[in-house]
Design brief:
Layout lengths: L2 E7 L11 E7 L8 E10 L2 H8 L10 E2 L5 E3 L5 E4 L2 E3 L7 E3 L11 E5 L3 E3 L6 H4 L2 H15 L7 E4 L5 H12 L3 E5 L3 H9 L3 E3 L9 E6 L6 H7 E9 L12 H6 L3 E4 L5 H14 L5 E6 L3 H10 L5 E5 L3
Parallel strand pairs: 11-12, 11-14, 12-13, 14-15, 15-16, 17-18
Antiparallel strand pairs: 1-2, 1-4, 3-5, 3-9, 3-18, 5-6, 6-10, 7-8
């Protein structure tokens, strides 16, 4: 049996997720259907989803060991450079789909198997490092702003909790889309970085110079009241996460009086990923990369994400 190096969940530990991570050998990918192909991975990136998997959230014990990782750029069997769209059909999931590393092995390995239709061409001018950031966090931010948030109908955006992958992507993309962007962070150093991206940085809960048309929410309970108060009439509050609590108090009087829309979303479609790749290529938008770590030190990358001291995406270089 052929094997490859991989990073995988070998157990669960809610209190110490890093202890559940193993780096070692796993069997080569198998193809559950005839239309699947194997991609040689060049670069991947970490998401909080990977840490949640190590805690046992969204991953069943009977699927262990499970190779982690959702995002990848690599080479298909014909030698083409491709970006992997990470959602695959899954009749056993209530959503009808699952993301790589939930039921099917993920991208933190030398090779990954996916349906051929999940392969999108890597556009010229977009590096493997940049493209590896896009399929999960940046795609989620793009969908939040465009499809769900209808940012084209407004001129101003508030992003709560900038620093993490989705929120930082939303700042960069909203600036590139020509919007007035406000972003909050508890960390003064991260507020400086937000300013460098072209947004107005604020402390959490600070009064904005104006009410905004779109609010990007990934924080949840800690910031949701501020999001409601900062929303202009008929604004869209788009939620894709709740890292600081998922049961906020909601002032319904404000919701109906201001005719607010509260919209949930996650990820996006292959078409939206194609749009995002084209947008980044055309406008020379480069994802915010916290660090590039060789695969041989992927454990250090997980530790850095777990520490919370991250601004942007952590990219794994599979060639090193």
């Amino acid at each position: 049996m052929r094997v490859m190096r991989a990073a995988f969940a070998s157990s669960f530990d809610a209190a110490d997720p890093l202890s559940a991570l193993t780096v070692g050998e796993r069997p080569e990918p198998i193809h559950p259907e005839d239309d699947w192909v194997t991609v040689r991975v060049r670069a991947s990136s970490l998401n909080h989803h990977d840490l949640w998997s190590l805690r046992g959230v969204g991953l069943a014990a009977d699927r262990l060991p499970m190779i982690l990782g959702c995002d990848a750029v690599g080479t298909d069997p014909d030698g083409n450079e491709v970006v992997v769209y990470p959602l695959v059909p899954d009749p056993g999931d209530p959503r009808g789909i699952s993301i790589l590393s939930e039921r099917f092995p993920g991208t933190f390995a030398e090779r990954v198997a996916v349906p051929r239709v999940n392969l999108l061409p890597l556009p010229g001018g977009v590096s493997a490092t940049d493209a590896a950031c896009l399929p999960t966090a940046w795609l989620t931010a793009w969908r939040m702003l465009t499809t769900k948030g209808r940012v084209s109908e407004g001129e101003s955006v508030l992003v709560q909790g900038a620093g993490g992958g989705v929120a930082t992507a939303a700042v960069a993309l909203a600036v590139a889309l020509g919007k007035r962007v406000y972003a909050t962070s508890r960390d003064a150093g991260k507020r400086d970085r937000i300013t460098e991206l072209g947004a107005t940085a604020l402390a959490p809960g600070a009064r904005l110079p104006e009410r905004v048309d779109v609010v990007i929410e990934t924080v949840g309970e800690a910031t949701f009241d501020h999001s409601l108060k900062s929303a202009a009439p008929m604004a869209r509050i788009v939620v894709s996460g709740a890292t600081a609590g998922y049961e906020p108090k909601v002032n319904l009087r404000r919701v109906f009086a201001m005719q607010l829309e509260i919209l949930g979303t996650s990820m996006g479609t292959p078409g939206e990923l194609t749009e995002l790749l084209a947008f980044c290529a055309e406008h020379e938008v480069h994802p915010v990369v916290d660090s590039v770590v060789p695969f041989s030190r992927i454990g250090d990358a997980f530790a850095r994400m777990h520490s919370g001291d991250v601004f942007g995406k952590i990219v794994i270089d599979h060639t090193a």
